[in-house]
Specification:
Chain lengths: ~90, ~280
């Protein structure tokens, strides 16, 4: 397996920043999700099979690996207008 | 506001269902001494969730988020161990509860088992309760005046709705005959335990400690979406997920047959004893 790829991902009032991130297929991706809002968020994705509650100001590591090419959507379960996607190529 | 209600419903549903199955089982099997312990565990968990939720808003007192997640995973595995033990003794107990014997006075439960019941209720309620508290606290932060009140009311209504959902679901169980009731609750508890085990494995994968082996073995999202009402209900009850990894499936297909085998062994060892007790009762 190729080495880990770390991708920073911020949650802001307006939404995920950046809203779309990319990774090559087959890598193990370490998403570093930072909550930059004053309220707790829940990073969630049915397509990535992940969920994490993250408190204000905190950064959580969320690993995803072995993904085939495709578009994997994620959202903030506590504020569902915030949406983003991981593009695996 | 409807979104607040739905989120609180979803977050509270798993806790309500786990507590519901325990209370239903204890009431029907006449073990009322356990009921108080389940309630005590649940209430203590609500208080603990409130305390932790409020304390953790003070930045200095926060644990590292990845460490928190690891602690949660460990608690899940511990809960699976306690629940496994309880499923086995409940199954053993159910044998002595057929027909006339059931009508006897409440069966006294030994302290260890009572504590086990309280612990399961505590873990189920604390886990979901903490998320609900953090979510509602966030709602308060975003509406720092009286406009927050309807949202908090919606959140509490959502939690109440989760309790109502569980109550309605388990009300249906009263129509089952006693042997079927024990079989159904037994299988349900087994699936709840398997669901908690899979959640723990999922957390370890998300933390990078465990490989998913294969990230997505299949997708049943076309059949049952995770965010549909039934998908949400099954996720809360038995840990349904539409795109499981191979590691999660392996945990499930190891645990469930092992438990079925263990329960069958209980049945086998019980039969001679059952006959003996039936003779002495006659």
């Amino acid at each position: 397996m190729a080495e880990d790829r770390t991708i920073p991902l911020a949650v802001e009032e307006a939404g995920f920043a950046p809203a779309e991130i990319e990774a090559p297929a087959g890598t193990r991706v370490r998403l570093e999700v930072t909550n930059r809002t004053p309220a707790a968020i829940e990073f969630e994705s049915f397509e990535l099979n992940r969920e994490r509650v993250i408190q204000p100001g905190q950064t959580a590591a969320v690993y995803v690996s072995g993904l085939g090419p495709g578009r994997y959507e994620f959202f903030d379960d506590f504020h569902q207008q915030r949406r983003g996607a991981l593009l695996v190529r | 506001m409807l979104e607040t209600l739905l989120i609180a419903w979803r977050e509270s549903l798993e806790a309500a269902l786990v507590v519901g199955v325990l209370l239903t089982y204890l009431a029907r099997s006449g073990q009322r001494s356990g009921v108080a312990y389940v309630w005590a565990g649940s209430l203590l968990a609500i208080l603990a969730a409130l305390a932790c939720g409020l304390v953790s808003n003070d930045a200095a007192s926060r644990l590292d988020p990845d460490l928190q997640e690891l602690v949660q995973a460990s608690i899940l595995f511990l809960a699976v161990a306690v629940l496994t033990w309880m499923i086995l003794w409940m199954h053993r107990n159910a044998a002595g509860l057929g027909g006339e014997l059931r009508r006897k006075a409440d069966q006294a439960l030994v302290t260890g088992r009572l504590m086990g019941l309280a612990a399961i209720a505590f873990v189920a309620v604390f886990r979901e309760g903490l998320e609900t508290v953090l979510f509602l606290w966030g709602v308060l932060v975003q509406h720092p005046d009286l406009t927050a009140l309807p949202f908090v009311a919606a959140g509490l209504a959502g939690a109440a709705l989760a309790v109502a959902t569980a109550w309605l679901f388990f009300r249906g169980f009263r129509f089952l005959s006693l042997p079927r009731f024990f079989r159904v609750t037994g299988v349900l508890l087994l699936l709840v335990a398997a669901g908690l085990l899979v959640s723990g494995v999922n957390k370890l994968i998300g933390l990078g400690y465990l490989s998913p082996i294969v990230a997505q073995v299949w997708s049943t999202a076309w059949l049952l979406r995770d965010d549909s009402p039934l998908g949400t209900f099954l996720a809360a009850l038995v840990g349904y997920r539409s795109r499981p990894s191979l590691a999660e499936l392996l945990a499930f297909v190891t645990y469930v047959p092992l438990m079925l085998w263990a329960l069958r062994r209980v049945d086998a060892s019980r039969r001679p004893a059952e006959r003996a007790s039936a003779r002495s009762a006659a």
